[in-house]
């Protein structure tokens, strides 16, 4: 396998990543390989650690890779990464920091699987671009101010305040400049870009519109999520195969190293074995990234859709629409269990 | 001598009663669970939120967000659903295999391991809308909290 996650801005080929979108913003930008610290908060937001613990978030709390912030209806959190980035986590949002491997290095990916998050990145020459997005949409960001909304129906909305943004999804690209935005439906390409006059778009209003669309045709809505989730599952499987391949190469190289001596030993270890060990170790990040993205999609989008349908039809369960929906939901969960769960651990739940 | 034996017997009885009160948690006491169900049937959504633990389990889905949990209760109220005419058929502790009654998935199995209360109880209730399983645990004042439910049972 030659594919690398996020390498050379070819995040996925359209055939592989038909459901996802990506943003590439053509300006210099800061790296976000640092932890994020809480500088301001309102209410009682939660801090879910990579180890699976849940604590109350507090001023000065540091978020590392794998950690999440969960905000309630009246909560708000502002995070800072050194002086390079400010992240605003709005109410009813799940914001997560993860890591991926790109060209042998770790890169942070910051995403919200539901709710809305505002980012402001200051320009720092010579640093990695940050990567942001939602569960199924990935965005490379460079020196910009952007807000990302993740809808309950799996759609995403990107609003750019400053900077240049190329949004690509399902093989189609839309370029955004200052005060422009675009919506990306679940499983589809970006829609028409629109002018955004800088006034705040109320997330709850947008979210309500998205959900109204879902309720007009729930089967279509769940089909979009199914497409995204299956793509994420396929990518997790693919990168797991890559990890296994690297692990096999590493083991073979280590065995060969055992038969060597002196200078040959040192050269082979430095040039072959150690790089393979590093690659194998870091390649875990990629299949875990896709598996965790699938889990977020399942939990915060598919799960919410199910709760909505179940509670609306709890006294009309024989309704043909509900039966079809419940069958489709069960089918997706079976695939999730078979194809995603093998890459998860209990701490993820 | 007779009076002494009577005193000791009374003391033992009091101790036994006290011990039984402390060993059966609120979440597994019939009268408290019945009171919880009555509250779930009549209280406004804000009160239901106070009585609900998070992450909440609905069938095989884990609800993390406060807003999603509020949506669940609001929808149930809007369609007129309650655990009406509830009869408590069974009440006991959650067991290692209880998760199978909700969903045979890693998600649900892990939820029971990580998020169910240490004193978690499982109530089986028959209602005019079918039979439901309710997970109880902890307490808010005199009532246990609801941690999740599934149902109505099909068939």
Structure, described:
The complex is a heterodimer of chains A (349) and B (155). By secondary structure, chain A is an alpha+beta fold. Chain A folds into two domains: 210 residues, Jelly Rolls (Sandwich); 131 residues, no CATH class. In chain A, 36% of the residues lie in helices and 27% in strands. Chain A is built from four helices and 18 strands. Chain A starts with 20 loop residues before the first strand and ends in a 10-residue tail after the last helix. Chain B has a single domain, classed as Nuclear Transport Factor 2, Chain: A, CATH 3.10.450. A six-stranded mixed sheet of chain B has the order 2-1-6-5-4-3. In chain B, helix 3 crosses helix 4. The termini of chain B are far apart. Classes of the chains: A alpha+beta (349), B alpha+beta (155). Chains A and B meet through helix 3 of A and strand 2, helix 4 and helix 5 of B.
What's the CATH topology label of chain B? Nuclear Transport Factor 2, Chain: A
Helical residues, percent of chain A: 25-40%
Secondary-structure element sequence of chain A? EEEEEEEEEEEEEEEEEEHHHH
The first-to-last residue Cα distance of chain B is 63 Å
Instruction: Please give the radius of gyration of chain A in angstroms.
Output: 21 Å
Secondary structure: elements and pairs:
The complex is a heterodimer of chains A (349) and B (155).
Chain A: E1 21-24, E2 36-42, E3 46-48, E4 54-56, E5 62-63, E6 68-70, E7 76-81, E8 85-89, E9 94-102, E10 105-121, E11 131-133, E12 138-140, E13 145-150, E14 156-162, E15 165-169, E16 172-176, E17 180-184, E18 194-195, H1 203-216, H2 218-257, H3 262-312, H4 320-339
Chain B: H1 2-23, H2 30-42, H3 45-51, E1 52-58, E2 61-63, H4 66-78, E3 87-93, H5 106-114, E4 121-127, E5 130-140, E6 143-150
Parallel strand pairs in B: 1-6
Antiparallel strand pairs in B: 1-2, 3-4, 4-5, 5-6
Helix pairs in contact in B: 3-4
